[in-house]
From TrEMBL:
This is Type II toxin-antitoxin system HicB family antitoxin. Residues 40-95 form a coiled coil. InterPro entries: HicB-like, TA_system_antitoxin, TTHA1013/TTHA0281-like. Gene3D superfamilies: 3.30.160.250. Keywords: Coiled coil. PANTHER family: ANTITOXIN HICB (PTHR34504), UPF0150 PROTEIN SSL0259 (PTHR34504:SF2). Residues 5-99 form the HicB-like antitoxin of toxin-antitoxin system domain. It holds the Pfam family HicB_lk_antitox.
Length: 125
């Protein structure tokens, strides 16, 4: 258990107070207690049961640090998605500005530019 990162946090009074201790790498491996020390002692028992259950079920036990690496990967994926959305929004704004200018030209001159509407114009059914 010493290799795994252990987190201990206070519980709100609405949840009974005390403390919760858990191991993020081992999903569901947690316990609680009135004090941080009691929560940690109870977590040692929960850890032993968690490992025993996973072994009996033939499941692979995650390596220490697995949760942190997974969260970093998710964070990186999230950052990439945000960058893509930012680029898409910028492109849509540029298209909207171009289309607005095209409409203003058409309204002011009464003349539509030759050919089909520009590629930035919305497609009408």
């Amino acid at each position: 258990m010493n290799e795994y990162r252990i987190l201990i946090a206070p519980l709100p009074d609405a949840d009974g107070g005390g403390y919760v201790a858990y191991i993020p790498d081992l999903q569901g491996c947690m316990s609680d207690g009135e004090t941080p020390e009691e929560a940690l002692a109870n977590l040692r028992d929960a850890y032993a049961e968690w490992i025993d259950t996973y072994n009996k079920l033939g499941r692979e036990i995650p390596e220490p640090g697995t949760y942190g690496r997974a969260m970093k990967a998710k964070h990186h994926e999230f950052d990439e998605r945000i960058e893509k959305l930012d680029a898409d929004v910028k492109d849509l704004r540029e298209r909207a500005e171009q289309f607005s200018a095209w409409l203003r030209f058409s309204e002011l001159t009464g003349v539509e530019p030759d050919g089909p509407s520009p590629s930035f114009a919305p497609k009408l059914c």
